[in-house]
Design goal:
Elements: E1 7-10, H1 23-26, H2 31-37, E2 46-50, H3 60-71, E3 75-79, H4 101-118, E4 124-130, H5 132-154, E5 164-171, H6 185-197, E6 207-208, E7 224-225, H7 228-247, H8 250-255, E8 261-266, H9 274-283, E9 293-298, H10 319-331
Parallel strand pairs: 2-3, 2-4, 4-5, 5-8, 8-9
Antiparallel strand pairs: 1-3, 6-7
Helix pairs in contact: 4-5, 7-9
Length: about 325
């Protein structure tokens, strides 16, 4: 659609943002890391990350994730969604205005295809998304798999390399919405109609306070009332699109061929009901018994656990440590 999207790549030597945490010392390692460190960093697996609404690559979560990637010998690549961070928006829409969910899904597919082609020497890649990114990624799976099949078929005679697709990891994915957060139906209908005329305005919408910015003075993250178009889009996805997928055959068709699925949720998530995520997770046509899919519930964690400061608690795994247990297990076969 002609929109220029910003992509941030965090390489092997990344040391963290200006607000440095103790993540580097807590990131750990293990045999898989040491085996990968003996390989050229061009072969490191890719973690392609999609952020949440109003966010960017300059958040505490992304910067900490980059440190973990460097420690575990993964290359982190972050897509800043249209209207977010340094990315352009469609038409004359303002910052963080996202009226069309399908446009964002298509951008994720194109981003995945472009990065797996650009870093073709990488052994493999996994997709990861948080909140809004956590619902965009599974909806992009069908397009990602189709693009991979086409690319592999068309380049067989050229003997081009294609990184393995390990699967997807979702952090507090927006796969449902707390009914208490939904205004009365007449108000929803009025705001939806208004969003067509004033898509970039924030009226009676959630307020974003980017306390998660890293560095703290970053201007990449949106602040203020969410644009009407974004609120309307997210409500439609979480209250209608996702539940309809669960009770229909759409989810099974969309996820067919997905290698693996990992979901991390907090049991105190105040935005997305845990049961909604469990219902969606159980409907995905992968086997829990064989390890194809796994759900980890963090005790006491809310929706923003991804941006919480790491305390270095040795008695309790952080979300990042759970994530890299999954990622390293999926990549292990390529580095044995």
């Amino acid at each position: 659609d002609g929109v220029l999207l910003n992509v941030e790549c965090f390489g092997p030597n990344y040391g963290g943002g200006s607000e440095n945490s103790n993540a580097s010392s807590n990131a750990g390692g293990g045999n898989s890391m040491h085996k990968r460190s003996m390989h050229n960093s061009d072969e490191w697996p890719l973690l392609l990350y999609i952020h949440g609404v109003c966010e960017s690559a300059e958040t505490w979560g992304v910067q900490t994730l980059a440190q973990y990637c460097a420690k575990h010998c993964w290359r982190l690549i972050v897509l800043e969604l249209a209207g977010h961070g340094l990315s352009e928006n469609i038409g004359k829409l303002g910052r963080a205005a996202c009226p069309n969910f399908d446009d964002l899904v298509n951008h994720v597919v194109e981003f995945t295809e472009e990065m797996s082609s650009k870093f073709s020497r990488s052994k493999g890649f996994a997709m990861c998304g948080g909140s809004l990114g956590g619902v965009l990624v599974p909806f992009a799976v069908e397009g990602i798999l189709a693009a991979r099949r086409n690319n592999i078929t068309s380049s067989m005679t050229e003997k081009k390399e294609h990184p393995d697709f390990y699967g997807i990891a979702l952090l507090a994915p927006a796969l449902g919405v707390n009914p208490a957060a939904i205004p009365p139906s007449p108000v929803v209908a009025a705001l939806k109609a208004l969003s067509y005329f004033l898509p970039s305005r924030g009226i009676m919408t959630p307020i974003e306070h980017p306390t998660y910015a890293c560095p703290p003075n970053s201007t990449r993250n949106f602040s203020g009332h969410w644009p009407l178009s974004t609120s309307s889009m997210l409500l439609d996805v979480t209250a209608n699109k996702v539940p309809n997928d669960v009770v229909s055959d759409n989810l099974q068709q969309r996820m067919e061929g997905l290698p693996s699925l990992y979901v991390i949720m907090g049991d105190k998530d105040e935005i997305v009901p845990l049961q909604s995520v469990i219902d969606w997770f159980e409907a995905v046509p992968l086997s829990s018994d064989s390890g194809e899919k796994k759900l980890t519930v963090l005790k006491g964690a809310g929706h923003d656990f991804f941006h919480e400061r790491l305390k270095g608690d040795k008695q309790k795994k952080t979300a990042f440590e759970h994530l890299f247990d999954y990622l390293n297990e999926r990549a292990k076969k390529d580095f044995e």
